[in-house]
Design goal:
By secondary structure, the chain is of the alpha/beta class. The chain folds into three domains: about 220 residues, L-fuculose-1-phosphate Aldolase, CATH 3.40.225.10; about 190 residues, L-fuculose-1-phosphate Aldolase; about 200 residues, Rossmann fold. About 45% of the residues lie in helices and about 15% in strands. Helix 22 packs parallel to helix 23 and helix 23 runs parallel beside helix 24. The longest helix is centred in the C-terminal third of the chain and has 26 residues. It binds zinc ion.
Length: about 700
């Protein structure tokens, strides 16, 4: 394990920062916390925590002993000084002496003991940090240590590795009980005899009088566990490597078994359709739409083909706190198995797991859907309500797959008994979060595809869809689209819609990135400079039809296989008011949009049996779009013998329409408000005697 400490960097850390007034000790606390957070083999996504004990003068000038401990919701990799909650040490030490305390009360009392009410909620491991009589305390869930712990002789092996260098704490659920256990065990212990403390099936603590000492010890201790794995030749199995025996690619090349496994034999398209089905069925079971993150790395695929996969994956997570993200076990999916069947089985075994462990409690069962699937021969698929959440699950799964293989090499992966996992999954603090509820954005977990997304209505629509919780593939011919949309919930692609191959690729890319497709917004279009029919050239006519009509038909056709596996799927078409009320000088535009409307009406008829809604908007004079160049504006205004300003507000309500109005409308049409409407055409023009 790499020691990332850099003395020069540490000295300079935070010095030009606005928070430089924070005393140096806290700056060093931030610095080394970030070093820990930088290594995913130590902590993942909000895992682990660190603290500092300091004497700080209070408002009255009296010195106060405080524990600055990581606040919940902060990630070590990016933590700042304000991410540490200052909690009074005397209160924490008093709490440790209590015989009994519920975790909800512990959290409440810790919050009440903060000297800054605006600070984040202190970590649930705060009391534990307070008990260790050193200034700096670091805690991680290092993969190597947990992997060794999760083997038949894990406790013994850890003792062989560390001997007297560390304290050993048998597994106790995190929270007050763990703090209390450590308090009891360490009452008469001379902490200075040790470099750290190993919590079985959980992680490791290191400590020191300086940030560097504590950090160096953490790295040294974890490196020792890694060296042990290396000496047993087990950690090469998985780190980025694929055993040739299990590599589906290797099997494909010249192995007669290739067909049985199906990798390569299954066309890409079929895989994506099955991925979309899997995502839809899991969303159904979860009761909320989910985003899927498909890990097809060699490592994930070789894991999916491990002999004894069912036994290994069916035991439980790497550390109990992962259960919140991953559920206890994955769905194991084989290609010849129906997804619905596999999920029915998963759901009923989840129900029995709940029933077995919740006896005598009034716990509320969580949804019974898996949070990841191991798809034999294909890899691992992780699920979450947003791309970010799905990525968190995916990262945890990747580390779990690795560590499980290490443990297998050490005599077998043995997770904690299911009751221990259940207790964390149904922890009162987690149940409280559930009761808190909070409003869910209407398009959370939905997946959209928007054309013409770099400007005007398309751009505004992406904004509205994102605000309502959707993940979006934003395509545009303008390469700027990639600069405009830098967001984990947006896949920005430069696509020329007149090149069907690129369109097909973009649709597939959306499905493989997010797991499916629910909403298609056919928005891209061109408005050629006004020409009367007498002067209309073939090239303008053909190009307008190509973009405004043909490419839209291709988009419908190519997205159909995935939309038909979507969740409340819908196609939204941005046509034009000209369809209903044409004006002179815009023949190519009006005719192409009228044909598009007719195409959409036919699609509404054809797609209804598949549950796909097709609705249209007919905007007029949306003045902040690219179509309305100064030239076009002048020409149109001239046609109606008006000034530009009169032309802009030339409607019954006398209002000027903008892209945002359309974006909000389209996002609403994509959502539940329109779930029973198809074939509708909405004119968005401020009202006009030609269209009402
Ligand atoms: Zn922990």
């Amino acid at each position: 394990m790499q020691n990332r400490w850099n003395e020069e960097e540490a000295q300079a850390f935070g010095k030009d920062d606005a928070q430089a007034q924070i005393h140096d000790e806290l700056l060093m606390r931030v610095y080394s916390s970030r070093l820990l957070g930088a290594d995913p083999a130590l902590v993942l996504h909000g895992g682990g925590n660190t603290s500092l004990k300091a004497q700080v003068p209070n408002f009255f000038g009296e010195a106060e002993s405080l524990l600055y401990v990581k606040g919940s919701g902060w990630d070590l990799a990016t933590i700042e000084a304000k991410g540490f909650a200052p909690v009074k040490m005397d209160v924490l030490l008093k709490l440790a002496r209590l015989k009994k305390l519920s975790d909800s009360d512990m959290v409440r009392l810790q919050k009440a003991a903060m000297t800054d009410p605006a600070a984040p909620t202190p970590s649930v491991e705060a009391i534990l940090h307070a008990l260790i009589p050193f200034r700096y305390v670091d805690h991680t869930h290092a993969d190597a240590i947990v992997a060794i712990s999760n083997t038949p002789h894990g406790a013994q092996t850890l003792r062989e590795i560390y001997g007297e260098r560390v304290l050993y704490i048998p597994y106790v659920m995190p929270g007050f009980d763990l703090a209390r256990t450590v308090f009891e065990i360490t009452r008469d212990v001379d902490w200075s005899r040790f470099d750290g403390m190993v919590l079985e099936h959980h992680g490791i603590f290191s400590y020191g009088q300086t940030a560097r000492q504590s950090y160096d010890r953490m790295i040294a201790l974890v490196s020792q566990a890694e060296a042990y794995l290396k000496s047993k030749k087990v950690n090469q199995i998985a780190v980025g490597a694929v055993s040739p025996k299990a590599d589906p690619i290797a099997l494909r090349e010249g192995s007669p078994k290739a067909d049985q496994i199906g990798v390569g034999a299954v066309p890409e398209e079929l895989n994506l359709k099955r991925l979309a089905q899997l995502r839809r069925e899991i969303s159904k079971l979860a009761g909320t739409p989910m985003i899927a993150r498909f890990d097809r790395s060699g490592e994930a695929r070789s894991y999916s083909l491990l002999p004894g996969l069912d036994k290994i994956s069916g035991q439980g997570p790497l550390t109990p706190d992962h259960v919140i993200h991953t559920k206890r076990v994955p769905l194991v999916l084989e290609d010849d198995l129906s997804i619905a069947e596999a999920l029915r089985h998963y759901g009923s075994s989840y129900q029995s797991y709940f029933d077995r462990n919740a006896i005598g409690t009034n716990l509320k069962r969580l949804d019974p859907a898996p949070r990841f699937a191991v798809w034999k021969g294909q890899g691992a698929v992780s699920f979450g309500v947003s791309p970010k959440r799905a990525q968190v699950v995916s990262d945890i799964v990747r580390h779990t797959m690795r560590a499980q293989q290490w443990s297998e090499g050490l005599g077998g992966w043995v997770s904690l008994p299911e009751k221990d996992i259940f207790d964390v999954e149904y922890w009162e603090l987690e149940q409280a979060k559930l009761r808190g509820g909070g409003s869910v954005p209407p398009l959370q977990g939905k997946i959209a595809f928007v054309t013409g997304a770099a400007s005007g209505i398309g751009r505004a629509t992406v904004e509205s869809l994102l605000a309502q919780g959707a993940a979006v593939c934003a395509v545009d011919i303008n390469p700027e689209v990639k600069k405009i949309w830098k967001n984990p919930s947006v896949l920005a692609l430069e696509v020329d819609l007149t090149r069907p191959a690129r369109l097909v690729e973009a649709v597939k890319n959306t499905v493989s990135t997010y797991g499916g497709l629910d909403i298609v917004v056919a928005n891209a279009g061109i408005f050629p400079l006004s020409q009367t029919v007498s002067k209309l050239d073939d090239e303008t006519w053909n190009k307008t039809f190509q973009i405004n009509l043909t490419s839209q038909m291709q988009l419908f056709r190519e997205s159909l296989p995935y939309l038909s596996e979507g969740i409340d799927p819908t196609i939204l078409i941005v046509a034009s008011k000209n369809v209903i009320a044409p004006g002179p000088g815009a023949a190519a535009y009006s005719a192409s949009k009228a044909a598009l409307t007719q195409l959409a009406r036919v699609a509404a008829l054809e797609f209804a049996p598949l549950g796909i809604r097709v609705n249209m908007v007919h905007p007029h004079a949306v003045m902040d779009t690219g179509i309305w160049t100064q030239d076009v504006l002048e020409a149109r205004a001239r046609n109606y013998k008006m000034t530009i300003d009169q032309y802009k507000k030339n409607n019954l309500l006398g209002v000027e329409l903008n892209s945002r109005d359309l974006g909000e409308l389209l996002a609403t049409m994509a959502g539940p408000v329109f779930s029973k409407i198809t074939g509708a055409q909405i004119t968005v023009d401020g009202g006009s005697d030609r269209t009402v």
